[in-house]
Amino acid sequence: MRRILFALAAALTLGWASQALAWGNPGHATVCQIAYLRLTNTARQEVDRLVAAGPWGKSGNARRTAAYPTFGQACTFPDNPHERGDEHFVNYPRSLRAVTAQTQCTRGLLCIFSAIEGELAILASQRTPQAGRAAALFYLGHWIGDLHQPLHVSFGDDFGGGAVNTTGVCGTDGLHSVWDKCIVLRVFRGLHPATGDLPTTTTANQWSNAGAAATELQRTITPAQAAAWLQSGAPWQWAAESYAITLRPDVKYCIDHQGQECWYSATSRVLGTTSRTVNIDDAYVNGFTDEVTLRLQQAGVRLAHVLNRALDPAYAAQHP
Question: Kind of pairing, strands 165-168 and 277-280?
Fold first, then answer.
């Protein structure tokens, strides 16, 4: 039995590693481009300078040799290749009912909260080499995007839904991938109805589509919405929003057990030797398209606020 469990865990770990790319490249690029459009002139100039000074080919990873010319594209840096895996998410016990200010990284481990704090410190330090500050900028944009993907605030035993199998319109890559990619594509298709399921072709088209989506999503954000979203100013509050979505019964990620815990299945508290399957139909995807749109917009607005405070002294003075 232990050999079976070990083999299953190893297989699922490989699957999770390939699926824990919140929003996928187009989604991350969209979040960061929304933020870029909302930067002050001073902050935007600094972002442009850091993007140009990025650690392209300097990370010690032979696979990373190409530069990303825009901030939106640079925010995909941590996923290409996937690095610092524990810092893309936060896991909680199944008995946790809500995220609070006291509920952050568990047991002193690294998680997305410590990652955000660390990148902010590096970005703010003028003593850090420019390539290091640039990398911190890209990671920070990526982490804040991740935090707004609900299944990145979830449970560890099922790899954030990577071990909840799926069938239907989003394929068989698991529930995590449904939220990373499939629903985002539906958002894009709604913004570009003539072009079908975007982006499905070349990398260049992905960047173009993400940029166009960001422009449209930014255009529809009202000042009142942005002000309301910024009232929740701490990363734990953004995680609390994600976690509340994660636990919703209609998400089908977990199953409430006597109002005390959210179980993996009706008969199993955690993932065991067998996994369950959820059918994802058009109603599911359409039903959460507005939710995903909102999370992309909120992430972009909040990231812009964080960067404006970090990179523009005049803005920071007005928003201490």
Answer: parallel
Q: What is the distance between the alpha carbons of residues 30 and 36, in angstroms, rounded to a whole number?
A: 10
CA distances for 281 relative to 159, 167, 221, 248, 276, angstroms: 22, 8, 29, 17, 16
* Residue-level length of the chain: 320
Residue 124's H or E segment, with its range, is: helix 112-124
**How much is the pLDDT for 248?**
98
Q: Is the pLDDT of residue 121 over 50?
A: yes
3-state helix, strand, coil in the chain (%, to 5): 60, 5, 35
Q: DSSP letter for 98, please.
A: S
Q: Is 83 helix (H, G, I), strand (E, B) or coil?
A: coil
Which backbone phi and psi does 277 adopt, to 5 degrees? -125, 135
Q: For the segment 247-276, what is each residue's pLDDT rounded down to a tens digit?
A: 999 999 999 999 999 999 999 999 998 899
71-85 pLDDT tens trace: 999 999 888 777 888
* Cβ atoms of residues 243 and 237 within 8 Å: no
**Contact (CB, 8 A) for 312 and 45:** no
Which of residues 61 and 71 earns the better pLDDT score? Answer: 71
Instruction: Name the nearest CA neighbour of 263 among 272, 271, 254.
Output: 254
Give the closest residue to 232 by CA, choosing from 291, 147, 298. Answer: 298
Please state whether 174 falls in left (phi above 0), alpha (psi between -120 and 50) or beta: left
Which of 60, 282, 56 shows the shortest CA–CA distance to 190?
Answer: 282
Name residue 280's beta-bridge partners. Answer: 168
Identity (one letter) of the amino acid at 76? Answer: T
| 311 close to 48: Cβ distance less than 8 angstroms | no
What is the spatial distance between Cα 29 and Cα 173, in angstroms, rounded to a whole number?
Answer: 22
